[in-house]
Design a protein that fits this description.
The chain is mainly α and 416 residues long. The chain contains 17 helices and two strands. It has one domain.
Length: 416
Amino acid sequence: MEATRKVQQLTNQVNNSAPKLNNPQMSLIIGGLIAGAILMTYLMVTQKMIQPLLLVIGLLLGYTLFHARFGFTSAFRRLMSVGNGQALRSHMLMLAVAVTLFAPILAFGFSFFGTGASGYVSPVGISLIVGAFMFGIGMQLGGGCASGTLYAVGGGRSVMFITLLFFIVGSTIGAYHLPFWTEELPAFEPISLATSTGLGYGGAWFLSILLFGLIAWITLVVERKNNGPKMAPLPSTTGWKRIFRGSWPLFAAAIALAALNALTLMTRGQPWGVTSAFALWGSKVAQFFGVDVASWGYWQGANAAVLESSIFADSTTVLNLGVILGAFLASAAGGLFKFSKVTGKNATASVIGGLLMGYGARLAFGCNIGAYFGGIASFSLHGYVWGILALAGTFVALYLRPLFGLSVPKPKDSFC
């Protein structure tokens, strides 16, 4: 009884310390649901059945990301600036669940539509090293990674619309330049821990779990050494309402994101990705203005059909739209949707950050989702290399952020 009473006291303290939510913004929620229903209907009428399903998955991804404020940019920044590894440990949990789900799916080719399933396994070379480093700098200046940009736009953070626009521009330029980086510069062949090493998926899974545990342990050592500040509580509520309106614990979001990524893999035959759609959107616009995009090396082969088709036939585009809509509904449910202030300095940082992320993502075969999350979950060595280089870019960006009026966490701070 005494133990139960203490647990209840601690729970009450946490609930009472968390900032309270505003009332739900019902007009926005209704508007979001109507927009979602219209888009769903359009996809059901004009596209294959896979697209409406992916819209739902994207919506759930966006809802989860916003509810937990599950970030990659902030996780890297907290670790590199003040040694707080809470969020990075949630990444390790997410990846542990992901590889556990991905291993049998990839080993046996499970898929809902009979197309088979394949992971993201890409080469390790100059292109990856430069691209991931650029992305690490860019996400710290742009205010969010690829998934973070989408869910911040859904939540109404005004400056992130600028980041997204130049993310698209950078991705388009990167697509144009990609043949030089991949064909003219050295790189190793793609390396899978499962199929390139003789370990098989069982051995690769075991090795991955050991690596995640080691990384989590290292973050704990760093955190204790630096006495890093803890993360501040997010606006929340209690009881069953927390599912829809309150903030979710990072560990719950980590598990949900891993499960949704596995569901994406079985639905479309590939893991979750974000930035290939940005290259498509930008290339479509350039094509509209008379640029001969179809002649680019990036749009040859299998990609040619993607360029020729409607953007709504692109599964990554549909996932992205779902993420934005899901984040919008989550923010409105918590009464948190509002447009934020844009200044000259943070707008400039968003322009530079967006360009670096867009260009870097193309060179590095993906972003924090496609290369880091999807690559590691697919047992690809390039995912680990991406994470190391993005951390290095983050370290450099800590010295650049103050130039644009952007904060850097200090040891005495608490933060979200």
